[in-house]
Amino acid sequence: MNIAQTMQDMGHNARASARILATTDDLAKSNAIRFAAASIISQSDQILVANQRDQEKAEKGNLPAAMLDRLILNEERIESIAAGLNTIADLPNPVGEIISTSNRPNGLRIDRVRTPLGVIGVIYESRPNVTADAGALCLKSGNAVILRGGSDSYHSATAIHDCLLAGLRAANLPPTSIQLVPTTDRAAVGELLTGLNGNLDVVVPRGGKGLVARIQNESRVPVFAHLDGICHVYVDREASLEMAVQVVLNSKMRRPGICGAAETLLIDTAWSPQHVRALIQKLQHAGCEVRAEQSIRENVEGCLPVSDSDWATEYLDAIISVKLVEGVAEAIEHINQYSSQHTESIVTANDKTAARFLNEIDSAILMHNASTQFADGGEFGMGAEIGIATGKMHARGPVGVEQLTCFNYRVHGSGQIRPN
Amino acid sequence: MNIAQTMQDMGHNARASARILATTDDLAKSNAIRFAAASIISQSDQILVANQRDQEKAEKGNLPAAMLDRLILNEERIESIAAGLNTIADLPNPVGEIISTSNRPNGLRIDRVRTPLGVIGVIYESRPNVTADAGALCLKSGNAVILRGGSDSYHSATAIHDCLLAGLRAANLPPTSIQLVPTTDRAAVGELLTGLNGNLDVVVPRGGKGLVARIQNESRVPVFAHLDGICHVYVDREASLEMAVQVVLNSKMRRPGICGAAETLLIDTAWSPQHVRALIQKLQHAGCEVRAEQSIRENVEGCLPVSDSDWATEYLDAIISVKLVEGVAEAIEHINQYSSQHTESIVTANDKTAARFLNEIDSAILMHNASTQFADGGEFGMGAEIGIATGKMHARGPVGVEQLTCFNYRVHGSGQIRPN
Question: Which CATH class for the A3-224+394-411 domain?
């Protein structure tokens, strides 16, 4: 296979499909997604067989246990993939929405109207469900998509992609609306990142830090991604112990491995040492390793020392670094220095202190009295997300169907000309 | 001068200023801009002396007449620069605006709040007024800016920059909020385009195609720009002759050299040949060179032949290419093939035909019965623009203060935690 030519052709076909999808009505897009969901259920045996092939290869190749777990499909996971598709089909159609209207003194009416972005590339690793989620989110938002699954999940992704194609066929939409790169050769990723001769508008990487970093460094097209999720919780002097325990434990321990999990706990020096001890003990009892400064270790047993590199580390595990800070000002300073601009939370009963925290930190998501683990498109009411972006261009925070669109201006006149 | 180090320092200082500007209240920003405007008036003698030095250098260097005209300042132009600043000062503050709010079933309130982008680089050529406009637009939107003026207007830009600095001082804002690159060495542009070690968020080029192309090719940070303005007017079978003449003449001839000027006229074959002749003669009488297909040349005297390359040419002059098309479908096809995604207009009395044109063309601005020369931030009610973007990421169409912002999510809770 000539990979460069294959990828160029995919880009060309994706652009042609994108032109059609841009003016396809919502019913056709939703029907394609619903039919794909039904097809995933009816084809679940074939999907499981394909997944079994991937698993066998993974076991031979000694894939790490966490990656293997992400790869494995079963009836329940397949049902959840299909349910996710139906949720996306039911979302309001973002395309064609009039975002704003301005009536000018000369009688011109200027509508700002939501339009698809065009062609989206999604590069992911071992999770086969991304094939379905990403394909459907892009279709719902009127975009063509080129999916590049990892070699570990190649057979599973192909089987799921077949169901998406069945959905497109049933709705009479171009099969090249959702394309899967037909090779596991890594050169295909390099080709994709060139922008396919103008036929790729944005790239969304889904996977580990190595993958995201490579794509951010090499891509010639914009990237929606987050490299790290170094999220902070700051417990202010005016926080109740009860709420601090609740928010901190959930932020760290609900699922320690997700990007919205807290990695660093900042505690106001004005909070009582008894409260500090109680909070940290709760973390320890929940199975969390606590790495803390000397002054905290003197107050609470069982803490490990913390080093400077901890403040810049995303553990993705049941570990938390803890630091005492002189009030909200030092908390903000620490966070602006070390955060990855993902999600930060403050626990306080003082609304003014909270407002300062929310105003002065430059992260995608800022929380007051809520768990950082709410950093999720579904929790934000977006229905589903293709990822979370920490960049400031175009998309920021959860990337749902709305973030996969842009807009244009449509000016309605009656013969107006511009004076000199 | 160590240019790399100088630019790195500018980036570092810009980021520090950006942090302050992000939470600076509107009054201080507006006062700085108003004071700068006053300073430009009171310092106009010094500005004119500096401009004289630039002009002398330009004449020695045989700068083309059009570039020289852009460079020249006089009392009237200086007053217009100051007036432009006051207009920007009076704009509503975009920062802190709540773009949308969603109340979740669990009681969380999620506000999407407008925030500055951060640090903006503006690279321009001979127009000294860009120093003032770009500096003020970035400041108003809460961003720090690094200005890189052309070597032709270096002394003028420096004199105007001094007035901006006086404004910042008067409002007690950091002088590094608006920095001017203190060298005309082109290596400074290369350094800027590296992104200054993460301290530059976006680049806005203002100038000719060569400058814009270089920046789009080399930049490691996002670029808001348009490379070409190949704008089309389509005259539909249901267009009145009167409105067609009005819109086409203004679109081409009001100012043939701006990016929103029409370059190609598409005429429905079903329009009457008498109308075609009358419309083209009006263009010719207005001094426009008409390049047309054989069938049109047989109908109208004085037209020159048109070649395939004309469809892809931005004349920026009193020249127009003309083609007959089989209705709106062929017009859309031609435009999607040749347009630069800037601005296109349809003249028709049929709203359904217009709707199809506006829906199916993927350009930043689409007009119905209006001149393409309305493609301008001021005409759109944005007050002022830093440029026009034809990309689809983040900003599209006129780039005003709102387009120089992004947003974050601010989540207000009462101790909510996420269930498993």
Answer: alpha beta
